[in-house]
Amino acid sequence: MNDRRVRALLAQLPLLVSLADEEHVTRAAEEVGMPQPAASRALRSLSERLGGPVTAQVGRGIRLTDATRALVPFARIALRAVEDGLAAWDAQTERAASTVRLAFQTSLGSRIVPELIRDVRSSHPDIRFELHQGSRGMCAAMFEDGLVDIAVVSDYEAAAAGVDVHLLFTQRLIAIVPDSSPLAGRASIRADALLDDDLVALKPEYGLRRSVDELFAVYGRRPSIAFEGQDVTIVGGLVAAGVGVSIVPEGTDLPDGCSPIALEDAGAVRRMVALSRPAVAAPWARLVGDSLEAAVSRVGVGEPARRG
User: Considering just the CA atoms, what is the radius of gyration of the chain in Å?
Assistant: First the structure.
């Protein structure tokens, strides 16, 4: 392949195809938005690069040479391919511009996030969501690395310049014990009442585990961990099965066999925040961020933040 000839031809594909349609340089130039003298120079340059004349003089007009006529069908295919490629580019660019990348902690996936998506798409059906569900550490890292537009995590304080940390709601933590536990039926307890039992907990990288560890740290003792999981639903099931006790957010859906107990500790609370970068966020991302508070309020999880 002669790259030099290919480059010369690619630059003049629209003019060549228009010339084949019009067989008139002035009209072909107008069709592609080029001054006639510039079109004539482009055709002469193309002839030199291809190694033969593109047109032949016929009286006061021109006609395509036989070699050019053989080339034109392929030029049309190439031009259509470029146009199709640009259409694909535009579609993907539009899709990316209307896609909001959202990371959230696992415990939010059953109620708040579905409510948010339902609300946003009911009024803006073109908005798409790229969802990432996982631990607090994963969500925070994705946001810090610029992989998501918004992250909803617990107790995030240290923020880089340009990062908005917006309090969405606070949520009490409660103890859950098997129905067979001597603690079952109590209205409230302190967290240290659980220290003699095996604890079912989330893994250390999860925000809830961090809150639980800080709660027990007040008493200077660490509970015996019987099981570490990745989902509060599994934690509840293990407690119901008698594997141990646990601490979960108030409002968690619990299986039969679990008894919830209020915690008296002042530190038995977590603060859920939304991380965003308002200065660089796309309009859709800002809209989704604004809709998070409304979703929290409708779902009724925790105590919604009050605007000052």
Answer: 33
Bridge partners of 130, per DSSP, are 101
- Write the pLDDT tens digit of every residue in 163-219: 888 888 888 999 999 999 999 999 999 999 999 999 999 999 888 998 999 999 999
Instruction: Write the pLDDT tens digit of every residue in 262-295.
Output: 999 999 999 989 898 887 777 777 778 778 877 8
Q: Do 209 and 275 sit in the same domain of this protein? A: yes
Tokens representing residue 155 in the block: 């107790």
Q: Do 244 and 226 fall into the same domain?
A: yes
Q: How far is CA 53 from CA 17, 47, 109, 293, in A?
A: 16, 5, 67, 69
Q: Is 95 left (phi over 0), alpha (psi -120 to 50) or beta?
A: alpha
- The answer to whether residues 296 and 163 touch, using CB atoms and an 8 Å cutoff, is no
CB atoms within 10 A of CB 271: 20
Domain that holds residue 158: 99-308
**Plot region of 33 (φ>0 → left; ψ -120 to 50 → alpha; else → beta):** left
Scanning the chain, the segments in alpha helix (DSSP H) are 3-11, 13-22, 25-32, 36-50, 66-97, 112-123, 136-144, 207-217, 232-240, 283-299
Cβ atoms of residues 302 and 211 within 8 Å: no
Of the ranges 87-101, 214-228, 287-301, the best mean pLDDT one: 214-228
